[in-house]
Amino acid sequence: MGPDSVKSLALELGFSAVRICRADEAWEAGERLAEFVADGHHGSMGWMAETLARRQHPTAMWPDAKSAVVVGLNYGPEQDPLPLLERRSEGVVSVYAQNADYHDLLKKRLKHLARAFAEKTGQQVKVFVDTAPLMEKPLAEKAGMGWQGKHTNLVSRDFGSWLFLGVMLTAAELEPDPPERDTCGSCRACLDICPTDAFPEPYRLDARRCISYLTIEHKGVIPLEFRAAMGNRIYGCDDCLAVCPWNKFAQTSAEMAFHPRPELKGPLLAELAALDDAAFRQVFTASPVKRIGRDRFVRNVMIAIGNSGDAQLIPRVEDGLTDEAPAVRAMAVWALARLDRGRAEAAAGAALEVEADEGVGAEWRRVLALSE
User: Fold this and answer.
1) Contacts of 100 (CB under 8 A, 6+ apart)
2) Could you tell me the pLDDT band of residue 49, with boundaries at 50, 70 and 90?
């Protein structure tokens, strides 16, 4: 099975794009990753430092790898997601997470491709979909599928910033495609729209300031400086992706699996705040949202409520003040102070007498300090 046959089969399986590159050549991506970790820009994602050596080059994962077949699946949204940010009583879930977990669909198709390739060629293969220490985006750039834009995500001439990526490594030597040229030019749209200034410079991301990191990876209380900027984003952030000018060439995904589930396209904050663990698991069955757990998710919802300006949501915030999860209680305190400072000040004294968690206590003490 040659390069053309591999590509044809990949497209038949429903992938939107497929390209090939050498997996055993030198590249600069490993050095950039090492700098990212050395600068501490990975935040609390300790696994990035722990697996750094394996991430720095594809052959570190598999010494016999010669070629990489990179596949992409278009998940372009039906509508621009940015207007949802103005509907403050609703929560915004990142486009990629509004339906089933894409890892499952990509891996199923990629395994089908790998199995057919191995049977035809007798060559060994390994497949990767974002869950192993392999850098898919640099490989996709090297294969000519697109280029890593100033927001560090892949940009495609055909699909803009909306591509899921998967990789099949093989010991076979396949003819590579030419790499893509970076055509971001002088555009700064993705950098300038970032609500938390998470890009210290073009092509560099400080994950510690990124709303996607804060709402998904970060545990515990969200740092004060980022809460207002989060707005109503309760899982991920699409701003830098959605504003990319190359999206005008992207077509809406034909994959029904990635059409938004109605309950996840502008879900009401009032309903999300009331989710207990069982209800959370039911709502987000098979969704990538499920992996962060109910407590972290409702923590995000409390921040969104605090940013909503909607006093009718105060009863939900008050419910959060007695939640079992300290992070939820802490963010409920902040939300109450945002929506009704007087009510928060009146509740602070009694709350401090019974609050055992230092983080939550610090939020109540901040309320009192602001009233002095």
Assistant:
1) 257, 258, 286, 287
2) low
In a domain, 281, yes or no: yes
Whether residue 190 is contained in a domain is answered as no
Residue 323 appears among annotated catalytic residues: no
- Domain annotation covers residue 253: no
Query: Domain of 44?
Result: 3-87+97-170
CB 146 within 8 A of CB 21: no
Same domain? For 107 and 213 the reply is no
**d(C-alpha 21, C-alpha 140), whole Å:** 8
Q: What domain count does the chain have? A: 2
Burial letters 243-273, b for 16+ CB under 10 A, else e: bbebbeebeebebeebbbeeebbbbebbebb
Tell me the whole-structure pTM to 2 decimals: 0.90
- Which pLDDT value is given to residue 41? 62
Amino acid letter, residue 311: A
Domain assignment present for 175: no
Last residue of a domain, one of 120, 149, 170: 170
Handedness of CA 61, 149, 253, 88 (dihedral sign): positive
Rg of the chain on CA atoms, in Å:
22
* Residue where a domain stops, chosen among 111, 145, 170: 170
Q: Could you read off the pLDDT of 1-39 as tens digits, one per residue?
A: 677 889 999 999 999 999 999 998 767 655 665 565 666
301 closest CA partner among 43, 85, 89, 80:
89
* Annotated catalytic residue within 39, 80, 101, 130: 130
